[in-house]
């Protein structure tokens, strides 16, 4: 949600990939891809954004905290980031999502979006449930 220099962004992508592989993720057993190369993420986020009202997003505590830490009114990208997260989850019809306590409200938004979409257009997206770690 913050502008990055292209060279820094490219290096961050490589560093993140290396860290994921160093953690033991086996690319022979899972899919590892760069989200920005899959246009359906942004396309579904746009559709979901058209189904989500702004007051709901403005009430999210993460929006309030990050906006305050940026000492500004915040950007549209920051405001709508939870909608993109919902698209990331629902695009793959996820049923269980590992989240930290700080992301429970964002998952609840994804659940609400799935339910709203299904009610309006017919059953399509499963409503994902949280997997919370005790750690």
From TrEMBL:
Coiled coil: none annotated. Signal peptide: none annotated. Its EC number is 6.1.1.2. One of its GO terms (molecular function) is ATP binding. Gene3D superfamilies: HUPs (3.40.50.620). Pfam families: tRNA-synt_1b. SUPFAM superfamilies: Nucleotidylyl transferase. It comes from the Eukaryota. One of its GO terms (cellular component) is mitochondrial matrix. InterPro entries: aa-tRNA-synth_Ic, Rossmann-like_a/b/a_fold, Trp-tRNA-ligase, Trp-tRNA_synthetase. The keyword Ligase applies. GO terms for biological process: mitochondrial tryptophanyl-tRNA aminoacylation. Keywords: Aminoacyl-tRNA synthetase, ATP-binding, Ligase, Nucleotide-binding, Protein biosynthesis. The keyword ATP-binding applies. Belongs to the class-I aminoacyl-tRNA synthetase family. PANTHER family: TRYPTOPHAN--TRNA LIGASE, MITOCHONDRIAL (PTHR43766:SF1). This is tryptophan--tRNA ligase. It comes from Irena cyanogastra.
């Amino acid at each position: 949600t913050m502008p990055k220099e292209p060279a820094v962004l490219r290096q961050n992508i490589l560093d993140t990939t290396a860290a994921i592989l160093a953690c033991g993720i086996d690319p022979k057993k899972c899919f590892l891809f760069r989200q920005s190369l899959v246009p359906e993420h942004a396309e579904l986020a746009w559709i979901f954004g058209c189904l989500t009202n702004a007051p709901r997003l403005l009430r999210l505590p993460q929006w309030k905290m990050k906006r305050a830490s940026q000492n500004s009114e915040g950007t549209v990208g920051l405001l709508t980031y939870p909608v993109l997260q919902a698209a990331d989850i629902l695009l793959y019809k996820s049923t269980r999502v590992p989240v930290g306590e700080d992301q429970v409200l964002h998952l609840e938004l994804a659940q609400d979006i799935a339910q709203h979409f299904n009610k309006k257009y017919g059953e399509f997206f499963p409503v994902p449930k949280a997997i919370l770690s005790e750690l």
